[in-house]
Amino acid sequence: MVRSQTQRRWAAVALGVAVLCALPVLASALPVDVPKLTAGQLRARILASASMSYSGYAESNATFGLPPLAGLNSVTSLLDGVTKMRVWQAAPQRWRVDVLTDAGERDTYQLGAAGYEWNSGAQLLTEVVPAPRGLPTIRLPRAADLTPTSLAQRVLSLVGTSAARFGTLPPVRVAGQAAAGLRVTPTDPASTIGAVDIWAQPSTGLPLMVEVYGRGARTPALQSQFFQVGPWTPAGTVLTPPPRVPGTGFTTASASNLHSALHNLSFELLPVTLAGRKRVSRQVTNVGVYGSGLALFTVLAVRGGNFIADARSDGGTPYSFPHGTGYLLSASLVNAVVVQEDGSADTFLLAGTVSGKLLLQAAVELTSSPP
């Protein structure tokens, strides 16, 4: 009798655990009903949600297929694989994003102009010093850029109202919530991005999931979604970096970390236009961003020829240019060209969400005159 009661009791416990585990699946299978919104209305609500205070848990899953890049491992790891993140936002410039790994966590704090990074494994706190007044901040991508909210806001700000077409999508359930869908389709045929799908809370516009598709692709190359999210009232020490105590390290780093990552940017002057695309900013002579909307590419002038050898070993397609040699590297959503001028120590790195044909044309223009 006792044994029979024990079995029934544990069977009830097991059933309860099974039900709890199935709740996310059951929630996703529930009918989805959202208020009818036009694409313009949903777009406006998503943009307005930037000032919301919220917290949640999100994951991004990227399959760009990038080769290893010396000095840029932090970037390639974000663009190939799953990144698990806890997110808290009090305001657009007051937030925290923790990246969770088997080795610990890396926490990023943005507190107005002040920024901090905490590495729990190394027990190291880094203060990110803003760029000197009047100089632009040129930083590498970070995990915080891949949260659904940041990704959606950046896409919509880049395309504006003229660089893409907007349409609605059938609603889906994300993080247990009914979400309205917005499809963003770039109008520039040179863009490697075929569509960006954003699902958001219909009432607040808070983005819950973002999927980025390459042209003609049926599966997203990048998906970022919340698995749990809700309103948050900032309180306690959540947005306070760990204190400096014995046993922990402290250092500082520049917000303009692109220069520190590559170490050897040259002082090559870059043109105002390339491949028919205007340069977005000319504040830094040896780093150029060209194009608009979701058809952007970056050009770096770098000293040394190691990048050519890396491109060759990574299986790049060789090309000859008027006064140089180089390679084309292609990955999901991103193309890159590495070209070295004849008789020069300078190498040009061109990469972006544009076609390889456009990048090759830009490389031809960069090497059209003898060095």
Overall description:
- With 371 residues, the chain is an alpha+beta fold.
- The protein has two domains: 230 residues, Clam (outer membrane lipoprotein receptor (LolB), chain A); 103 residues, Phosphorylase Kinase, domain 1 (2-Layer Sandwich).
- It is built from seven helices and 20 strands.
- A twelve-stranded mixed β-sheet has the order 7-8-9-10-11-1-2-3-4-5-6-12. An eight-stranded antiparallel β-sheet has the order 13-14-15-16-20-19-18-17.
- A hairpin with a 2-residue loop joins strand 2 and strand 3.
- The protein is globular.
- The chain starts with a helix and ends in a 5-residue tail after the last helix.
Q: Tell me the overall shape.
A: globular
CATH architecture label of the largest domain: Clam
Radius of gyration from the alpha-carbon trace, in angstroms: 24 Å
Q: Quick one: biggest sheet?
A: 12 strands, mixed
Q: Report how far the terminal alpha carbons are from each other.
A: 92 Å
Q: In the residues, how many domains can be counted?
A: 2
Number of separate helices: 7
Backbone structural class: alpha+beta
Mean pLDDT: 84
Under CATH, the topology of the largest domain can be stated as outer membrane lipoprotein receptor (LolB), chain A
Kindly state the number of beta strands. Answer: 20
Low-confidence residue ranges: 22-29
